[in-house]
Design goal:
single chain; alpha+beta; Beta-Lactamase; 2 domains; six-stranded antiparallel β-sheet
Length: 262
């Protein structure tokens, strides 16, 4: 089967498209962009073909030149296209109003993530109304293995889907390595509980409250997380128990799956 798949991949090769995608994927990893010479070296390509491809990507506004004209970086066009994709756009539109109501009532922030090529992508974020808060930047990639969002996403999948996600997984910056047996045990416990409440492995003082948004077949299509911060001054804010109830109400309203008899 693998040999057949390789034959199909070779048969339908599109070298020009591959070059363009290679450039986009390389630039996506660079904070400050790259020069044409750096791109040519890193991709081990001919300088003239890289030049032609870069010119087309600039003309189509997928790539932008620096003010000095010597460095190339991604534009926001791909990000904009992704958010015009109807299912994602519809989910964001439906989720934002109840997310805002949760943030106002719980006085906490929350963020919504989707699975994306081996990790998670933050597609919506709402801040709480107070002076203090914990937020995750919109468009950030979040680790699949060591975050509350990632574990809940994995817990509410079929075994086949979970294996596919783990096979695609690549570490994000700072991601902690987790033993597979421990991860499987955690997924079983999360699925039984229906959600996860756990101290963050990324930030001290934060407790992640995480629930799955379920599709019609009962698998997680998205995950909603509140990085709960406990007040220690004289202000009496909603408790973590109250925030848990409020967050559960939000995801139940957004989920399309209902247990038999519910």
């Amino acid at each position: 089967m693998e040999a057949e798949e390789k034959d199909d991949a070779d048969r339908y090769r599109a070298p020009a498209l591959d070059k363009g995608l290679d450039i986009l994927e390389l630039l996506a990893q660079q904070k400050d962009g790259l020069t044409r010479a750096e791109i040519t070296k890193l991709l081990n390509r001919n300088a003239s073909e890289i030049y032609r491809m870069l010119e087309r990507l600039v003309a189509r506004q997928y790539v932008v030149r620096s003010a000095g004209g010597d460095r190339y970086s991604l534009s926001l066009k791909l990000y904009a296209l992704a958010h015009r994709h109807p299912p994602t756009n519809r989910l964001i539109s439906e989720a934002l109003p109840p997310m805002q109501r949760f943030a106002d009532a719980a006085e906490q922030s929350c963020h919504l993530v989707l699975y994306d090529r081996g990790n998670l992508l933050v597609i919506a974020q709402v801040d709480g109304p107070g002076t203090w808060g914990m937020s995750v930047r919109l468009g950030s990639r979040v680790g699949l293995i060591d975050t509350g969002s990632g574990r809940v996403m994995l817990a509410f999948q079929t075994e086949e889907q979970r294996e596919h996600m783990l096979a695609e997984h690549t570490k994000v910056k700072g991601e902690v390595t987790v033993d597979r047996d421990a991860l499987d045990t955690a997924c079983t416990e999360i699925r039984a509980a229906g959600f996860l409440r756990k101290d963050s492995q990324q930030t001290f003082g934060v407790t992640d409250l995480t629930f799955p948004i379920l599709g019609p077949s009962g698998q997680a299509i998205a995950v909603l997380t509140c990085p709960y911060l406990r007040r220690i001054d004289e202000y009496v804010a909603p408790t973590i128990e109250a925030a848990t109830v409020l967050l559960r109400d939000v995801v139940e309203g957004l989920s399309m799956f209902r247990e038999q008899g519910a």
